[in-house]
Amino acid sequence: MFKVALVGTHGVNKTTLAYELAGVLKRKGRTVELLTEIARECPFPLNEQATREAYIWIIARQVQLEIEKSPRADVLVCDRSVLDNFAYYVRRYGKKDEQTDALGSYCRSWMKTYDLLVRLPIAQALAADGFRSTNEEFQREIDLLCDELFESAYEEKTKPAYIRGLLSAGDIAELILRS
Fold it and tell me: Exposed, middle or buried, 32 (CB in 10 Å: 0-12/13-18/19+)?
């Protein structure tokens, strides 16, 4: 099983690309499971008002669903990873307490279960969808935290491999199929 996560801040087309990637891989004969936005199911406040419980719930649910879906397919396509979900936690609660250290360690350890991370940069203005924050400063803060969390630890040769850029679903599928 190959696990890919599309990572980055909100509003960078991760969900759209995840669906497109799943379609491309299916057309190429692979079985695919798709894990879309966990946050939409969260029973706690989100965006700028999110609570610790909200972020912990999202990360725990992400891990749970990855475990459940992994044995069902050749490829698991994740719209996010635990680490970019952790970026939202860090933005809200900072980096310097025992709970943040523990959650960060857990997320970094779980990152070893991914095979490929595709980091999507901000490429267009936020569009209101009735769910995600449209605050561009909030989006940029998360984007910078994603840079800090991902760029310091991952690259093309690491496990997981890390690629940053505006890749198409076809480009990502080719990377997966070559692996």
Answer: buried
**What does the alpha-carbon distance between residue 133 and residue 125 come to, in Å, rounded to a whole number?**
12
| Domain layout of the chain by residue ranges | 2-178
Q: How far apart are CA 41 and CA 32, in angstroms?
A: 22
CB atoms within 10 A of CB 89: 23
Indicate the pTM of the whole model.
0.94
Enter the tokens of residue 142.
Answer: 């998360």
Cα separation, 154 vs 68, whole angstroms: 26
What b-and-e string marks burial along 135-174, b requiring 16 or more CB atoms within 10 Å of the CB?
eeebbebbbebbbebbeeebeeeeebbbbbeebebeebbe
Of 88, 16, 97, nearest in space to 59 by CA: 88
115-157 pLDDT, tens digit each: 999 999 998 888 887 778 888 999 999 999 999 999 999 999 9
Q: What are phi and psi of 52, to 5 degrees?
A: -55, -45
Fold of 2-178: Rossmann fold (3.40.50)
CA distance 115 to 13: 20
